[in-house]
Design a protein that fits this description.
Layout: H1 3-15, E1 53-61, H2 77-92, H3 97-104, H4 108-111, E2 116-121, H5 127-135, E3 145-147, E4 150-156
Antiparallel strand pairs: 1-2, 1-4, 3-4
Length: about 160
């Protein structure tokens, strides 16, 4: 497009209220269009080979002031951790997990069934709990794990 023709086109555009528009130029046939380079390929993440669901049971020891502690819980965070540690030692010494859960767990719903949580997916539990539970082998007992609910001792059952 000649400079004179371009100036005339711009003047017409301004006259007709098209001042902000960009005029296209003619590309001769056979000229490839300017195509931006595609972004580099993103490597595909390795597929998680772990189980999609597991079964586990737990004992929960809550503390006063915890994010989701029941109003009847009066123990301090330190007392709750100490109690959860003692419970873990009892379980590792061979005491019956279900009986301990019934007697000591602050999770009233699962305590009634020996701490059983049934089958669950990772995203159905709070992250610290899920990370610990899914890292265990069947039969394994976790360290004392803290979540927004308090301290947990978890045993993976399947």
């Amino acid at each position: 497009m000649s400079e004179r023709l371009r100036d005339a086109a711009i003047a017409l555009g301004v006259a007709f209220g098209l001042g902000g528009c960009v005029l296209s130029t003619h590309t001769p046939p056979g000229t490839p269009p300017d195509v931006p380079e595609p972004p580099p390929a993103t490597p595909v993440a390795e597929e998680d080979t772990g189980p999609r669901t597991i079964r586990a049971r737990h004992v929960l020891v809550s503390f006063a002031g915890g994010t989701r502690a029941a109003s009847y819980v009066t123990r301090t965070r330190e007392e709750a951790y100490a109690r959860a540690s003692e419970i873990r030692e009892q379980i590792l010494a061979g005491e019956d997990f279900a009986e301990i859960a019934r007697e000591y767990s602050d999770d009233r719903g699962s305590a009634q069934v020996g701490g059983e949580l049934g089958e669950f997916k990772r995203n159905q539990m709070v992250k610290p709990f899920a990370d610990a539970a899914f890292a265990l082998e069947p039969g394994g007992v976790s360290e004392v794990i803290e979540s927004e609910f308090g301290f947990h001792v978890i045993q993976r059952t399947e």
